Structure to design on (110 residues):
């Protein structure tokens, strides 16, 4: 078991509407589609998980926005933790098992 927790963010209605209004391609994110899993530090309880998220939400928010649209001028301004919680469905998982027999490699730094 890894000394991490897993966080899954799924786009909620405000994120989907923001993406829909970017262009007329008809391509929009889906809450049921493939999502990014973030490995975060372990937490003890739900209150600790939210505290952890409140300290990291800005980076996660930017990663989600950038994953959909790289033009920062189109990103919403004055992003807050409350806004983050409205824009994403948040799923924490406290148990993360590594079933592989080889090291984890971060492609960004490889």
């Amino acid at each position: 078991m890894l000394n991490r927790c897993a966080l899954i963010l799924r786009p909620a209605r405000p994120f989907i509407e923001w993406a829909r209004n970017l262009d007329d391609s008809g391509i929009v994110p889906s809450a049921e589609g493939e999502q990014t899993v973030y490995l975060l530090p372990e937490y003890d309880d739900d209150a600790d998980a939210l505290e952890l998220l409140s300290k990291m939400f800005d980076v996660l928010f930017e990663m989600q926005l950038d994953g959909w649209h790289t033009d920062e001028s189109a990103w919403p301004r004055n992003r807050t933790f409350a806004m983050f919680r409205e824009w994403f469905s948040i799923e924490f998982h406290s148990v993360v098992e590594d079933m592989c027999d080889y090291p984890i490699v971060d492609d960004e730094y490889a």
